[in-house]
Every structure is written in C-alpha cells, then in structure tokens.
Amino acid sequence: MTEQQHNPEPLKIAILGSGSGSNCQSIIDAIADGTLNATIVCVISDVDDAKILDRARAHNIPCHYISGAPFKTKIDGEAETAYIDCIQASGADVIVLAGFMRIIKPRLLETFPQRIINIHPSLLPAFPGLHAWKQALDYGVKVAGCTVHFVDAGTDTGPIIVQKSVPVLDDDTTESLHARIQVQEHIAYPEALRRIASGAIALKGRTVVHPA
Length: 212
Ligand code: GRF
Fold this sequence. Notes:
- Helix content is 34%, strand content 25%.
- It contains 6 helices and 11 strands.
- Helix 1 crosses helix 6.
- The site of 5-O-phosphono-beta-D-ribofuranosylamine (GRF) has 14 residues, from helix 1, strand 7 and helix 6.
C-alpha cells in the first residue's frame, strides 16, 4: 500500500461475517452517528441464517448469503469466484471481516491487495487462531485485547492498524473476558476505518503509520 491522499468521498465498505454481527453493528452505528464517513455497500455471509444478515436487512443494506460449500473452513473454488464477483459488483473500497469464520485464500487476497482487514480478539502477535480469549485466559496473561489488521496470507499476521487492551481479572471466565474485549472491538473497528477513510494511512515496512 502506498500513501493515500485525503478522500472526502465516503469509504465504500463490504462486510463479511458468519455470526452475530456485533462488529458490523458498531460500524453501522458509527456511520449513523456521523463519526465515520463511509457507506456499507454490502454484507455477505456464508451462513444463511446468520444474525449479521438480519442486522443488514434492518438497515436496508444489500445483503447476500453465499455458501462456502463444499469447503468447511475456507473460501475457495467456485465460492471464491462468487465472493469476488459480489464484492466487485458492490464497488467496495475495503473488505471488512467481522467474525468471518473461513480462511481467505490467495486469489481473493490478490484481487483486493491491502484492502481486506480483520478484527482479532487478542493483542497480536499473541494468541492467533481460534478462541483467542480462551488462549489468553489459559496462558494467564494480565492484559488482553483486540487487534484490527490488514489480512495477508498468514493466520492473523498482517500489518496492525489499531489495538485496544483490557485487563484480565482474577475471576474472569471465557465469557466475561470475551465480552470485555468485544466492548473494545466496537471502538477499534470504527477507529481503524476512520483512519482508512481519511486516507491518512501508509505502510512503512510492515508498520502502519499515520502521516499527518
Ligand atoms: C469477534 O470477537 C471478532 O474478534 C472475532 O469474531 C467475533 C465476531 O463477533 N473475529 P461479531 O459477529 O462481530 O459479534
């Protein structure tokens, strides 16, 4: 990614999710309250009855169920083509993964270079992969958090845009820690998108910098 210029046009966002869509909702809310200059051009889910699709419908956002079959954990083959076609037709500038439970393969990544971002419920590079809040609890860390990052070919390895931390309390359960992290996720995703929408973001090596 090269340095981008200030862009007054609303950022066009495609959101991909498999579940409840609370992060999608935080982006919808930030746009609605005027703190994020963006428009959600489509929401796509690989789960036909996912709540994220209901949230999109409730706000008249174009939404699509696109199956990932026959694969269970990745977007590949014909499904990958369908995802690429749908995202391109939407005209999205940025693809936001919000609880999307499938691996993104190279063809999709190469079609949208430096334009796919993800949120992960840990302070990366600690605890990549599934159930990061449980990994944090099992390890015994005292500080946990979330990370918004660009997606690359690795698992949760791309350049970091925003991180937020939360304390881990002695009596935390997986549920209570995940809930505390999610409160920060709902701040972090709109913040990362605000930075991208303003154009004040560049890559220096693998470090995301925010030129004035
Ligand atoms: C979040 O905890 C996010 O960090 C992880 O999946 C969860 C999605 O939650 N990648 P929601 O569907 O946005 O509520």
